[in-house]
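pinned: reference chain
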Amino acid sequence: MSDSAGEDVVGDRVDVPALTRRVRAGDRAALTEALEILPSLDPGPQSAALLIALPATDDRHAMATELRAWDRHVSWSQAQ
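pinned: its structure tokens
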């Protein structure tokens, strides 16, 4: 399901760079969408940019989702 670059089919269905720009702009709907797709988005440059764009939060569910995605990304980057 994943290609060699590390981005998966979700990245093909969702315009991750555009979503990242919307998250950076403070679009709450984009933030919700980002948190929904992060668990299925494979590690890679686009997912890393999205993770970096996410704002700080006190929401434990959002933090857990982000931490799991960061963990996958770090593991992927170390394997490269």
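why pinned: The chain has five helices and no strands. The mean pLDDT is 88.
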